[in-house]
Design brief:
Chain lengths: 110, 109
């Protein structure tokens, strides 16, 4: 079963614009993570936010977490063509199981 | 280089054949995972192992088997019982976050 649901499924923007992706989940979590996947490659971890945190930054990435709404958002500022990829949220509810959503496909036009 | 190595990168199988996908890691992580990814979809957990000689079924274990005889290795066998095996298979280790290999793409002819 998939815990996270990303929105939108696909997003196309111009270089320099900001990209926002949202994730909703169903059960209580220990942390929420965002991963990036270039086409045909493995996933790369971007950022982890714990359940007691509300916002976290890493370079051009900003993640928010609202546990009352069971939702998270990933903001990529000043996007670049190289940001074109699929982005997945993943929730960790303990027990060594991380559950992934279906992902948002981001296309950044140069 | 530290990391996770999956092989082969591409694999073709005839119906009725078993195939084994290799996953080797030198990160010294205890936990290892196999995920399946279908086009345009997220990852679904097949099997995971928290420690050597122990593993648990994930959400879609039917038609798959694994072994964990060494900490570094977690091979996945796709058996003939798996009715729709064509997919992208990802191996990962876990240490706070997941670290992924580059994947193996299996196509059934």
């Amino acid at each position: 079963s998939q815990q996270g649901e990303e929105d939108p499924q696909a997003l196309s923007i111009q270089e320099g614009e900001n990209a926002t992706m949202n994730c909703s989940y169903k059960t209580s979590i220990n942390n929420l993570q965002w991963y990036r996947q270039n086409s045909g490659r493995g996933l790369v971890h971007l950022i982890l936010i714990r359940s007691n945190e509300r916002e976290k930054h890493s370079g051009r990435l900003r993640v928010t977490l609202d546990t009352s709404k069971k939702s998270s958002s990933l903001l990529i500022t000043a996007s670049r063509a190289a940001d074109t990829a699929s982005y997945f949220c993943a929730t960790d509810a303990g027990g060594f199981k991380t559950i992934f959503g279906a992902g948002t496909r981001l296309f950044v036009k140069a | 280089d530290g990391g996770i190595t999956q092989s082969p990168k591409y694999l073709f199988r005839k119906e009725g054949q078993n195939v084994t996908l290799s996953c080797e890691q030198n990160l010294n992580h205890d936990a290892m995972y196999w995920y399946r990814q279908d086009p345009g979809q997220g990852l679904r957990l097949i099997y995971y192992s928290q420690i050597v000689n122990d593993f648990q079924k994930g959400d879609i274990a039917e038609g798959y088997s694994v072994s964990r005889e060494k900490k570094e290795s977690f091979p996945l066998t796709v058996t003939s019982a798996q009715k729709n095996p064509t997919a992208f298979y990802l191996c990962a280790t876990h240490s706070g976050e997941l670290f992924f290999g580059e994947g193996s793409r299996l196509t059934v002819l």
